[in-house]
Amino acid sequence: VVVRSLEDARDRDLVRRVIAKDEEAFRNLFRRYAPMAKALAFRMVRQPFVAEEIVQEAFLALWRNPKAFREDRGSFRAWMLSTVHHRAVDAVRREEAWRRRSRERDPETILVEDVGQAVAEELDLVSMRAQVRAALEEIPSEQRQVLDMMYFQGKTQSMIADELELPLGTVKSRTLLGMRRLRTLLLEEPS
Amino acid sequence: VTPTDLPHDAIEELIAADVLHGLDELDRRRLERELERHGPNCAECDRLIAEYSEVAARIALSIDPASMSSGAEDRVVGLARAIDAEPGGAEPPEEPGLDIQRRPGRAGRWASLVAVAAVFALIGGVIGHALSPSGRGIEQKFLSFAAQPGARLIPFPSKGDQRLAVAVHAGEAGGWVVGAGLPGLTNDRVYELWYLPSTNGTMQPAGTFVPTDGQVVTEVTVGSSFVALAVSVEPHGGSKTPTLPPVFITNVTTSL
Prior knowledge:
The structure holds two protein chains of two kinds. By secondary structure, chain A is mainly α.
C-alpha cells in the first residue's frame, strides 16, 4: 500500500475507524470532503440540492460499507470523489431523459455555487488547485476538450465522438494522451 | 509469466477512460475481462488504477469547493444512525433510499411497535414534521403503510424548510407522498408527482396533491419500479407529461 501523504494516512485511519462505526471519524471525513464532493457534483448536475443529495448518498454508502474503499487502489480522496462522480454521471444521464420530456428549462434552478474558500484554505488545497489548473492549461486543447466533456459533462467516448464528429479511435487516443500528460504533470516529482 | 509481465498498453487506455466514467458499455466489459485476465494480484494494474484515479480526483480539485447547506453534517449522521437502527442494519443495503423496515424481523407486537416508533422518528427527521399516532385517519393509514415490512422512505433533497418524501413498497405500485413546509399554489395549480420507470423511459404521472398549511399526506400510484422521482407544478387536474421543470427531483440509484 502506497501512502502518498500524511493526509492520505490520516484518511485511511479515519476509514478504519468508520469500519468500527466511529461516528466522529465519519463526521471528520464528511467535513473534509463533502465541500469538494459537492462542488464536483454541482459542476455536473447544476442543481445544488441534487448535488448535495449525491454527496449524502455517497457518504451513506461509505457508512454502510466502508470496506468498499480498497487501500491498494489509491487514496481515499480519489475513491470518494470517484464515487460521487459516478453518481453524478448517473444523474446527468437520467437528467437527459427528463430534459427530453420537459418543455422548457427554468433558469431559476441553476444557482450560483456557494464557494467555501475557507474550507479550501484549511485543507491547503489552493496551491494544488492552481497546479491542476495550470496542468489542464498545458495539455493540448483538443485533449482538454475531450477530458472536460467526459469528466464534467458525463459523456461516454462514443457520445463525444458523435458530438464532435470524430472517429471513436481519435477520442480514445486523445483521452489516453491527455490523461498520461496530466499524470506526468501532476503526480511525478519534479526532477 | 506473472500478471505484471502481461502487456498493459490496452488496459491502460481503458483504465484512463474508466476513471473518468467515460467508457462505453462494450469497452467497460472489455476492461473487466482484461482485469480478470491479469488477476487480482497484478501490481501494475493496481498502480495504473491508483494513479489514474488520482489524476481524475485532481481534475475534480480544479474547481472551487462548495459549502454544504446548514445542518448537512447532522442530517447525514442522523441518516447513518437510522441505517444502524434498522433491523439487520449491520448488513449494508445496496439500494439507496431509506429502508424503513428492511426485514420483517420477529413477528409480534413488539416488532410492530418498534417499526411504528421508527417511522415516527424517521418522518420527523426526513420531513421535519411529526405525525401524530392519534391524528387524522389519513395519517394513521399512512403510518400503517410505512410501518409494514419492506416499506422504504425516499426523501427528496430538502429546500430550505421544504421537506418532501415518498413512501413505497418494493414491487408495489401504491405509495404515499408526505411533506411539510410546501409553498401554497395559486391559479388552481397542483403539485404532480412523477416517476421514471427506467433510464431510457419517459416520466409517468403518479398523482397530484395540494398541501394544506404547507403539509401533505396523500396516497399516490408510482410504478412498481423506478429510477427517479420528481415533482412539478401543473395545471388543475394534472398533466400527462411534465410541462414545467421539477421543483423536487431525486434519483434512485438502484431500481426498486
